[in-house]
Amino acid sequence: MQAQEKEKQSLKDLLYSGKLKKDSSGVIRNTDDLSKKIDTGSKKETQPGETSVPAANAQQNAVILKTNTNTNTLTTGVDKVTTTADSAAIVAVPANTIPAKTNTKLWKEYTDSLVKTLNDEVLRSKQIKKNTYYLMVDYEIEPDGKVTITNVTSTPENAFLAAQVRQIMDSTPLSLNPVTDSSNQPKKVKRKQQFTITKE
């Protein structure tokens, strides 16, 4: 049994090292004399590090290219190759547009900034007592979206605080989205907005 295994191994070694003579029948049996079939005239030296691959395994180890019709990409067992058509398509994709902020959100951001400025610069004044103040702002939105402050009132009443709020708002103008009429044309409108501020 071991002799047969050795003979099979010897046959494989000769077959894959390229030392066997080409035989017209193309069939080598275990019972054949291998010494008659060795081609001593054309020896193929195997380079260091090279290994011979059986024909059956060569098909298994071959890299198979697959074409994906949906993405036009070539996929190999190792890597993904993107074609030039894909690159062009990627470049051609438009950037996502950022949705415009609503007037409510714009006012919230504006009043948050305004409250911070009032806390830092105005509430330190002795003319403002410790309390929570409700500030009502009357304004107009122009057809181009610019905001014009028409009046500022404070509850509880504090003329100094109201004047300071008006001055800061006039010096840092706000722009909102234009308001449109039924025919989708921008129009001038009057609005009111309230926010609170607390001196502790």
Can you walk through the features of this model?
- With 200 residues, the chain is of the alpha+beta class.
- It has three domains: 1-43, no CATH class; 54-89, no CATH class; 103-199, Fusion Protein Consisting Of Minor Coat Protein, Glycine Rich Linker, Tola, And A His Tag, Chain: A, Domain 2, CATH 3.30.1150.
- It contains six helices and eight strands; from the N terminus they run αααβββααββαβββ.
- It has helices at 2-17, 34-37, 55-61, 84-92, 103-121, 159-171; strands at residues 66-68, 73-75, 80-82, 131-141, 147-155, 179-180, 186-187, 189-199.
- The strands form three sheets. A three-stranded antiparallel beta sheet has the order 1-2-3. Strands 5-4-8 form a three-stranded antiparallel beta sheet, with helices on one face.
- The N and C termini lie far apart (100 Å).
- Residues 62-69 and 71-78 have low confidence and may be disordered.
